Amino acid sequence: MGKIIMKRMQIGFMLLVALIFLATTLGSAQAGVFQIKPKGNKKIKIGVLDLISSIEVAALANNWYRKHAKDRGWNLQVFDINGDYAKAQSMMENMITAGYDGIIINWTDFSYENQQILNANKKGIPVQGIACGKMVPGVISHGIAPEMGFAAMSSLYLISKLHTGDKVLCYHDPRVATSLYRFNTAKVTFDSYGIKIAQEMHYTGVGGDPSQGCYEAIRNALLADTKKEIKGIWTHWEGFGVPAARAAVDMGRKDIVVVTCDDAPNTYKAIREIPTLYATSGANWDVPEWTGRLFRNFDKIFAGKPFQDEEVWFSMPNLVTKDNLPPPGYVFNPCGYKGRPPDFKVK
Question: Cα-flanking dihedrals φ and ψ of residue 313, to 5°?
Answer without folding.
Answer: -150, 165
